[in-house]
Amino acid sequence: AQKITQTQPGMFVQEKEAVTLDCTYDTSDPSYGLFWYKQPSSGEMIFLIYQGSYDQQNATEGRYSLNFQKARKSANLVISASQLGDSAMYFCAMRDSSSGGYQKVTFGTGTKLQVIP
Amino acid sequence: DGGITQSPKYLFRKEGQNVTLSCEQNLNHDAMYWYRQDPGQGLRLIYYSQIVNDFQKGDIAEGYSVSREKKESFPLTVTSAQKNPTAFYLCASIGQGWAGELFFGEGSRLTVL
Predict the structure, then answer these.
(1) What distances in angstroms separate CA A83 from CA A15, A80, A117, B53, one per listed residue?
(2) Could B42 and A110 be called an inter-chain contact, meaning their C-beta atoms sit closer than 8 Å?
(3) CA–CA min distance B17, chain A (Å)
(4) Does the distance separating the beta carbons of B48 and A106 come in below 8 Å?
(5) Could you tell me if B60 lies within 8 Å of chain A, comparing CB atoms?
(6) pLDDT tens digits for range B47-80
(7) In chain A, how many H helices and how many E strands?
(8) To 10 degrees, the CA torsion angle through B99, A37, A4, B71?
(9) Does B43 sit within 8 Å of A47, measured CB to CB?
(10) Tell me, what's the pLDDT at A102?
(11) What residue in B sits closest to A97 (Cα-Cα)?
(12) Pairing mode, if any, of strands A3-5 and A88-99?
């Protein structure tokens, strides 16, 4: 069965510093995708970054990068140069077809990031 | 602009009443999803659908029902059998090939009194 695990319920980071949010996954499907989303207190889901299982290079989007270690089944999000506006909940998610061939998307429990001035 | 529209944004209902949450997308996406989020928690999958007239139970389907009669629409009914329906509900869709962004609506906040 597919599974997404985020082991850090909450984290603090100093403004302008880099921070890594952990995510591990488990799936029997060789073709899968990994996402990271940001959810501020307003509740909207903001897409940050996507990594496909066959992508050779780690995905990057501005200050966000995904440290994809396939053998270790980890997909950590790295935020460089943290800003006060980065304070939010962050969710890791995985899309795969291990459930009878249907494309299921499962989310982790999230990490609450707080950026300190 | 393309996107996902959820309505209503806020909904109050009495215990024992069924309620239906609307989700409409004009992105021409095949796959659509419903998630439930409780305060301070992650998103849990309720139901999902890849094509019209077909849908699958997610991890917490008990007490919920869906239909997919049109590609653009994927309404969720919260039935009276759902023991704790007060939550934030999010609808999402993903494009063909399933690579890239999962698009979300703005959510519907249901409070059962």
Answers:
(1) 5, 9, 9, 45
(2) yes
(3) 25
(4) no
(5) no
(6) 999 999 999 999 999 999 999 999 999 999 999 8
(7) 0, 12
(8) -50
(9) no
(10) 86
(11) B98
(12) unpaired
What is d(CA B38, CA A69) in angstroms, rounded to the nearest whole number?
31
The first and second tokens of residue B79, run together, are 């039935």
At residue A97, φ and ψ (nearest 5 deg) are -120, 35
**What is the amino acid identity at position B102?**
L
Alpha carbon distance A86, A116 (integer Å): 10
Chain A positions touching B31 (Cβ under 8 A) are: 103
Q: Give the DSSP letter string of A77-106.
A: EEE-S--GGG-EEEEEEEEEEEETTEEEEE
SS3 content of chain B, % helix, strand, coil (to 5): 0, 50, 50
* Binary contact (A50, B33; C-beta < 8 A): no
pLDDT, one tens digit per residue, over A3-31 is: 999 999 999 999 999 999 999 999 999 99
User: Taking a C-beta distance cutoff of 8 angstroms, is the pair A2, A105 a contact?
Assistant: no
Between strands B19-25 and B76-78, the pairing is antiparallel
How do the pLDDT tens digits run along chain A, 117 residues long? Answer: 669 999 999 999 999 999 999 999 999 999 999 999 999 999 999 999 999 999 989 999 999 999 999 999 999 999 999 999 999 999 999 999 877 778 899 999 999 999 999
From its phi and psi, is residue B92 left (phi > 0), alpha (psi between -120 and 50) or beta?
A: beta
Q: Which amino acid is at A9?
A: P
